[in-house]
Amino acid sequence: MRHIGPKNRIARREGIDLGLKTPGSKSHANLLKKINIPPGQHGAGRMKKVSERGKQLRETQKLKYIFGLSTKQLKRYFIHAVKKTGNTGFFMCQMLEKRLDNIVYRLGFAPTRAAARQLVGHKHIKVNDKPASIPSMQLRTNDVVTFLNEKSQKIPAIEKTLLNKDIIMPAWLERKATIGKITGDPTSELIEKQIILRLVIEYFSR
């Protein structure tokens, strides 16, 4: 089950911005001010020594929250990745990055992955000129992603996001106006800046 509680509390507990709040919003600004202060009345005073298993769990939780998945869904990606010959963590990252909702977010079509998921679920997105409504849909190189119509682009939150010039586009994505294209295979670089993948793999390997 996805977490539906306070999102800033989650991010403060993990100590990083998980991308759960719209950049530039008041809530996001408040988070950045307190990102290094754990939630709760006693804040940092409650910090305890964490076991190796605890560290593995924390990294797994971070990855789960970033992509808005349940533990069961995340483990399914691990099972598919471990069947491949090579780096399990890398293959797992590739599958997560290739999700349609993630690509909509990476292209700057939505302010958060949750918003991207909703955009896809409400059929505002097309893939290769065909309406798509499954957030977990796996895309491939040369697939083209765009909005269903101009009305979809005029949703206030989406329209504001499309004007953001500070979006960092991954090297494997290309965007021209409101048309996005997958130009290559995703890397694990962006995820590894936030997550220690080795600990996630160890967590699911037990």
From TrEMBL:
This protein's record includes keyword Secreted: no
Pfam families on file: Ribosomal_S4, S4
CDD domains: S4
SUPFAM superfamilies assigned to the protein according to its UniProt record, in alphabetical order: Alpha-L RNA-binding motif
RNA-binding S4 domain boundaries: 98-156
UniProt family annotation: Belongs to the universal ribosomal protein uS4 family.
Functional note: One of the primary rRNA binding proteins, it binds directly to 16S rRNA where it nucleates assembly of the body of the 30S subunit. With S5 and S12 plays an important role in translational accuracy.
PANTHER family: 30S 40S RIBOSOMAL PROTEIN, SMALL RIBOSOMAL SUBUNIT PROTEIN US4M
Protein name from the UniProt record: Small ribosomal subunit protein uS4
Organism (species): Candidatus Roizmanbacteria bacterium RIFOXYD1_FULL_38_12
